């Protein structure tokens, strides 16, 4: 198999596993594209969709096609409910931040202990989780049954809050000790418990809003999924698929977006990247890659000063003009999308005549638009010294020129942080 196909095996397997575990094929496809691969192409999308759909069909064949959770019917009764869901987003964002900070603090400290302690760390973590489970057995395992009970108000808000906090404690301890038991299901459990608790509290504070606790538990699941796993679009569709309730989409989007912003602002590194880097592996981060500025031609192009020759000019006129110019490459717009280029050396090698310059020029020159990415420009520039940057509505209207040096200069400039850019003149002055 080719290298690209070998790289596709793991994402395809991830899509199949996620689709089967949660009976959510759309979520599986979105998560793999959003967080594992990071790009949409026909070949990749086809393979991932095929794996997710076939896996979901097999799963539903044996287990049925009912949604994973029985969510009570939800209808938006009052516009003030959206503000209440925004509060859920803030609480969920803080809870997500607590969980990620907890792991990032505890895990490296346990790893720095003497090597012989690693034989006992999982056992001690298991002992702690087991002791907690004696009093609160709901935190053991995936806890789908208890998530369903939380949605139907079978716990008090105090118990829900305790269960959510203990799940954070137990899951973080498991990950830090070297015995991770998964992250997706625990995140859903935490979110359901915290969301249900917030819903019950707001139900008492604002009885006029008729807040349904089941809807809050569902929104809480998506909120912590977006805040911890940093996959906001995936979390929205997961809530729709595991509940089968599409009327909840607006509250889910509001709450998820707020939690995602809080989590990303106060903890720049996503949890999966955090875990891999603590283990000494610097895996590619799709979130960090998405946050990198996308450079376009307009960020690198410059005005075409003295580098354009008219299409009606003769060879003799062109030679006279070149002799008084310091430019090394010249552009000639022939007609429509036809642009030609000629170097100073090639032009001076032509015999002096009154023949039209356009008749002796060679192959067409590629052109770019100002909104093209610099990656596209790099692919087009090839052997050419210069590319014309033309207007989209008038392909003979030149708005600038672009060279390889311009592209490199733009990338170098984008690589400087604001702090370094501010300090550079001071350093230069000091060295002088």
What does it look like?
With 432 residues, the chain is mostly helical. The protein folds into three domains: 3-63, no CATH class; 80-291, Clc chloride channel (Orthogonal Bundle); 297-412, CBS-domain (Roll), CATH 3.10.580.10. The chain has 18 helices and five strands. The chain has a three-stranded mixed sheet with strand order 1-2-3. The longest helix has 32 residues, at 80-111. Residues 416-432 have low confidence and may be disordered.
List the helices and strands and how they pair.
Blueprint (H helix, E strand, L loop, with lengths): L2 H20 L2 H13 L4 H22 L16 H32 L9 H15 L8 H8 L5 H21 L6 H22 L7 H17 L2 H12 L5 H18 L4 H8 L7 H6 L16 E2 L5 H9 L5 E7 L2 E6 H5 L25 H8 L5 E4 L7 E5 L1 H11 L3 H14 L1
Parallel strand pairs: 1-2
Antiparallel strand pairs: 2-3, 4-5
Helix pairs in contact: 1-2, 1-3, 2-3, 2-10, 4-7, 4-8, 4-9, 4-11, 4-12, 5-7, 6-8, 7-8, 8-9, 9-10, 9-11, 10-11
Helix content: 55-70%
In the CATH hierarchy, what is the class of the largest domain? Mainly Alpha
Note the gap between the termini. 57 Å
Structural domains: how many: 3
Q: What is the succession of H and E elements?
A: HHHHHHHHHHHHHEHEEHHEEHH
Structural class: mainly alpha
């Amino acid at each position: 198999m080719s290298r690209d196909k070998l790289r596709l095996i793991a994402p395809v397997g991830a899509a199949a596993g996620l689709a089967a575990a949660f009976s959510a094929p759309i979520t599986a496809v979105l998560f793999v594209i959003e967080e594992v691969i990071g790009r949409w192409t026909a070949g990749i999308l086809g393979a991932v969709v095929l794996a997710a759909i076939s896996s979901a069909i097999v799963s539903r064949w044996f287990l049925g096609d009912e949604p994973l959770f029985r969510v009570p019917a939800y209808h938006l009764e009052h516009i003030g409910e959206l503000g209440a869901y925004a509060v859920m987003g803030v609480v969920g964002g803080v809870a997500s931040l607590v969980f990620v900070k907890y792991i990032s603090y505890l895990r490296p400290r346990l790893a720095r202990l003497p090597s012989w302690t690693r034989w006992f760390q999982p056992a001690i973590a298991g002992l702690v989780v087991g002791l907690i489970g004696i009093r609160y057995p709901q935190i053991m395992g995936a806890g789908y049954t208890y998530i369903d009970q939380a949605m139907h108000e079978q716990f008090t808000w105090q118990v829900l809050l305790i269960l959510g906090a203990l799940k954070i404690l137990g899951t973080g301890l498991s990950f830090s000790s070297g015995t991770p038991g998964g992250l997706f299901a625990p995140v859903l459990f935490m979110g359901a418990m915290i969301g249900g608790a917030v819903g019950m509290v707001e139900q008492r504070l604002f009885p006029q809003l008729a807040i349904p606790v089941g809807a809050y538990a569902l929104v809480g699941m998506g909120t912590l999924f977006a805040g911890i796993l940093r996959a906001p679009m995936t979390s929205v569709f997961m809530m729709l698929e595991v509940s089968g309730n599409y009327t909840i989409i607006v509250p889910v989007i509001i709450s998820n977006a707020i939690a995602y912003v809080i989590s990303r602002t106060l903890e720049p590194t996503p949890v999966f990247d955090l875990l891999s880097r603590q283990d000494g592996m610097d895996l590619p981060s799709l979130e960090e890659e998405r946050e990198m500025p996308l450079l376009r031609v307009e960020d690198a192009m410059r005005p075409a000063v003295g580098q354009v020759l008219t299409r009606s000019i003769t060879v003799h006129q062109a030679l006279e003009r070149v002799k008084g110019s310091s430019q090394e490459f010249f552009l000639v717009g022939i007609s429509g999308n036809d642009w030609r280029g000629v170097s100073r050396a090639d032009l001076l090698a032509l015999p002096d005549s009154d023949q039209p310059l356009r008749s002796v020029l060679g192959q067409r020159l590629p052109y770019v638009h100002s909104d093209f990415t610099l990656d596209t420009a790099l692919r087009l520039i090839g052997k050419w010294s210069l590319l014309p940057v033309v207007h989209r509505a008038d392909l003979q209207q030149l708005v600038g020129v672009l060279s390889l040096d311009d592209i490199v200069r733009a990338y170098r400039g984008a690589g400087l942080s604001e702090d370094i850019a501010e300090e550079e003149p001071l350093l230069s002055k000091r060295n002088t």
